[in-house]
Amino acid sequence: MKKKIKINEKKSNIGFFHGTLSICGGIILGYLVMMVFSKYTPGDYAIKIIPSVILTPIIISFTGLWLLFSPTLSSSMIKFIIACIILFILIKGF
Predict the structure, then answer these.
(1) How far apart are the first and last CA of the chain?
(2) Which of 18, 27, 52, 89 pairs with 41 at a CA distance of 20 to 30 A?
(3) pLDDT confidence of residue 45
(4) What gap in Å lies between CA 17 and CA 27, rounded to an integer?
(5) What does R_g of the chain's alpha carbons equal in angstroms?
(6) How many other C-beta atoms lie within 10 A of the C-beta of residue 46?
(7) How high is the pLDDT of residue 17?
């Protein structure tokens, strides 16, 4: 006699739009963070560009995961919009 074993595991609720927002938002936020970093780093262009080139993939990964692990899609969108506004203000200056 065979018994069926039931495992009650929660399925992932990350949808297509949530994943797409995390990927695109991570790229956009990573790029904006590196623009702010390059703007406020003193020195010539080589000193400004080389750390940005090295750190951009790391920042993109962290911001993408930060957006992906939001509990809801609306909180992910709010995080993205607020972060973009703050970074745009830092890029344009006060």
Answers:
(1) 74
(2) 27
(3) 85
(4) 15
(5) 19
(6) 7
(7) 86
Tokens, residue 39: 């703007």
* Closest among 68, 40, 69, 37 to 54, alpha carbons compared: 37
Q: Write 5-13 long-range contacts (CB < 8 A, 24+).
A: none
Q: The whole model's pTM is what?
A: 0.78
| d(C-alpha 12, C-alpha 23), whole Å | 17
Q: What is the block-wise mean pLDDT of the chain (94 residues), using blocks of 10 residues?
A: 57 75 93 90 86 91 92 89 94 81
Instruction: Give the single-character DSSP code of 44.
Output: -
Distance (Å, rounded) from C-alpha 70 to C-alpha 79? 9
d(CA 45, CA 85): 26
Helices and strands counted in the chain (H then E): 3, 0
